[in-house]
Task: inverse folding
């Protein structure tokens, strides 16, 4: 399995999770009267999203390589 195949396989899960997290964050910021865009904390969210996607790709690649060698 390649990187693109893994991302395509998990796209719905990743987009749903990240999308709902962003919606909740925007609603919380809006209700508090805070700025909706906060570059420093938003960068942390992007880094977290990349790490989650990276873990899912890593897991798929590891599972695929384990099946081929058996």
Result:
């Amino acid at each position: 399995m390649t990187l693109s195949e893994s991302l395509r396989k998990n796209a719905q899960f990743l987009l749903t999770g990240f999308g709902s997290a962003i919606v909740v964050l925007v609603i919380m910021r809006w209700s508090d009267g805070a700025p909706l865009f906060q570059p420093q904390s938003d960068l942390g969210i992007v880094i977290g999203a990349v790490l989650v996607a990276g873990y899912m790709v890593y897991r798929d690649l590891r599972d695929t390589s384990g099946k081929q060698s058996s």
Notes: DSSP finds two helices and no strands in the chain. Residues 20 and 64 are 29 Å apart (CA to CA). Residues 39-69 form the longest helix (31 residues).
